[in-house]
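Co-fold these.
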Amino acid sequence: QQQVKQSPQSLIVQKGGISIINCAYENTAFDYFPWYQQFPGKGPALLIAIRPDVSEKKEGRFTISFNKSAKQFSLHIMDSQPGDSATYFCAPLETGANNLFFGTGTRLTVIP
Amino acid sequence: DTAVSQTPKYLVTQMGNDKSIKCEQNLGHDTMYWYKQDSKKFLKIMFSYNNKELIINETVPNRFSPKSPDKAHLNLHINSLELGDSAVYFCASSQGFRRVPEETQYFGPGTRLLVL
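Predicted complex below.
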């Protein structure tokens, strides 16, 4: 689990603000970088993911920024809404490897 | 219509009992997983099966035993339950296991286990 470090542990943002969650990793063999979103009482669900050959991917209000040299990737939520309140996990993957790592999770609360 | 289903949704039991959690996926996926999520929301892989073959077997007590009767089912049997086993257990599935990077995992709704 120490291969993946996620921050912050919790985040409170006003409606309309920008939420930023960071994930740092050690394994340079990771080749896919997804973020999962988990609502209370539900299982995690894939939100957005990026390959290492691009530095940024945007889907609606959600953007992943990837910094290969720093071994970090982050999730940006623009115009944060109360409905975005959930726990977010990074879960970088290595193709062909028999391991799975999830970040420690970030509990996001968006205040109306 | 549920893609990944688990039963039961809630499980309250006494220490020392043996219990099973069932998981079924109707996505036609080859790979299934069991995760444990503790009270702090830490999510940890326990087991993974690909085409009924065990491919991930993390360090968990041998009181936990997965069983995959077919590709669509992966059950989790727990013997001699302990207080520390209280957690939410998630089943998940994916098309394959790491053949390509984008092997998205689809999670079930979770089974909330409380050991008294």
